[in-house]
Amino acid sequence: MATIRDVAKLAGVAVCTVSRTINNNQNVLPETKEKVLRAIKELDYVPDELTRGVFRKKVGIIAMLVPSIRHQFFGSLAYHVEKELYVKGYKLMLCSADDQMEREQEYMRVFRSNLVDGVILCVTHLEDSVYENFGKPLVMLDYQVNEKIPVVVCDNVMGGELAAEVFIKNHRKHVLQIISESDKPVFSLKRHVALRAALEAAGVAVRDTIINWNQYDFVGYQDLSMSLLETHPEIDGIMAPDMPAAAFLKAAVRLGKRVPEDICVVAFDGTYLTRVNTLQITAITQPLDLMAEKIVEVISAQVDGKELEESLYIFPPTLTRGETG
Amino acid sequence: MATIRDVAKLAGVAVCTVSRTINNNQNVLPETKEKVLRAIKELDYVPDELTRGVFRKKVGIIAMLVPSIRHQFFGSLAYHVEKELYVKGYKLMLCSADDQMEREQEYMRVFRSNLVDGVILCVTHLEDSVYENFGKPLVMLDYQVNEKIPVVVCDNVMGGELAAEVFIKNHRKHVLQIISESDKPVFSLKRHVALRAALEAAGVAVRDTIINWNQYDFVGYQDLSMSLLETHPEIDGIMAPDMPAAAFLKAAVRLGKRVPEDICVVAFDGTYLTRVNTLQITAITQPLDLMAEKIVEVISAQVDGKELEESLYIFPPTLTRGETG
DNA sequence: TTGTAGGCGTTATCAG
DNA sequence: CTGATAACGCCTACAA
User: Fold this and answer.
1) Hey, what domains does chain A have and what are their CATH numbers?
2) Mean pLDDT of B231-252
3) pLDDT (tens digit, 9 = 90+) per residue, B76-114?
4) Contact with chain B for residue A86, Cβ under 8 A
5) Does the CB of A66 have a partner CB in chain B at under 8 Å?
6) Distance from CA(B13) to C1'(D10), angstroms, rounded
7) Which residues of chain A are within 8 Å of residue B48 when distances are taken between CB atoms?
8) Tens digit of each residue's pLDDT (9 = 90 or more) over A165-189
């Protein structure tokens, strides 16, 4: 790999002239510039972004840490985030904690070593102090450590209420909600509180099942849903994230239940997992494109040293009517 | 952010002593080491991996360029790749070309700027010379430029034949295969040649529909499948990648066709998209875990300057019997 | 065992 | 407009 020195030598100019040519382009005689560009082409020279990064204290990479790349929700979110980042000239470094705390910790360490300019955190199992003392631009998705660390999140209360409406309109009596276990007061818990409140006010019974994210893949959800529906045949409505929702739909159909007459399924998130099924699943859809836009706006503003006006950005979800409720 | 100098000052030693403490740990008096470690902790010092990278000419990051992060196939593959990379101490930088050549090109440029140690390429729309003159460790997934650039791929011929068997056993007469358009002689085309050969030998008619990856999302596939099945009611078998396969299944059911009696669906890839449906889709499953293992082995061997014994690694797919054929 | 000096590839400063 | 020179933060000789 050619260095800037090689280019300078070949072009017969000083190193800094090459540097100027690559960067500002100011104060370089057109013919000198021409010579330099020819040498660059000749040597197939590409500036070392690593070294540049050392100097500028900025590499142009934003990291995004997710529980697992496999989850379609994060795949979709990452898709939109990457798109927005690209427009601003950043590259995305997508990292998967693989649902392990140890790896989450290791990644947080790596992020602090200047390999990235900022971090989008979709997973927050570590101690608050880790985030408080992180020392680099941060955006979180489901948990607010303090007012200094911005959060972009969908309006979970509204989401829970939208779901409740669906169940009420369908005259449900026993609704089951699948709750992801959490060691912290994350925003997504609010949807469950809201759903319960709205349903109980309407005289509907609500049952909670708490699950561990890292314990289930689709097959696991399938087993869980089968046994739950068998044990509790009274259940006539379910709210769950997309993947478990699909599993419950599958289980319900297998058990001979009619959908939506016997059982309603409402998926929370609304990725295309809710559409691939023969029956389209009714969903509370998070506006991932808008959220991604805000996430990128917030993280890049911080990288540029700007002050943020708010620290909490809430986006309303929408109800996507499907055939399951 | 504290630098190595701050640590040295606080610990009352020279900079290089700190460096040695962080790295080798050789030839440092236990008590000196102790002092240094205390200072590191005190200052919450994290070495600047950027600078280290400049020196070592290695950053510990491997990039993976995919057509689009949204595609579950690449999400799953990335999941396994990341897992293997992590074990070897590498971080993954997952990049999405978003099905645009321009972005593919831009990423290839960035990759050469030393921000990554090697690249896993799942998308290869550029001129061969770009890959030939890349100058960094490379692994490709579906296209062999030359014998110097290693390829990890699933046995597409075998995959096509496995699919053909399914159709033949089900006594199909008119099979449709969905082919991704390609400007290059990629390996995945072989599955279609193999399927056609095997089916025609058995007297089964084969129809091809060529699609453009970047033209369809699930809704697009749904429209396509609907119109194709309506226009060609004689079709009684379909081979397609997971997502279009799911779309065809949905369309078939909507059109009142019985599955698998009236129409068989075989998905190629076998990600969990084939499992979330009420009917599990029969699939030709690529061994992504094994492939990822090999990919990482091959890329890291190159980063370490080792010579590769082979340049083509082919993995047999397996037939996952579902309920659609 | 520890410290000093020089270099990695760039860029900014300040002469010329 | 262009060229030395120092600096970024770290690491490896080589010297002490």
Assistant:
1) 4-56 (1.10.260.40), 61-153+289-315 (3.40.50.2300), 156-287 (3.40.50.2300)
2) 97
3) 999 999 999 999 999 999 999 988 899 999 999 999 999
4) yes
5) no
6) 16
7) 54, 113-114
8) 999 999 999 999 999 999 899 999 9
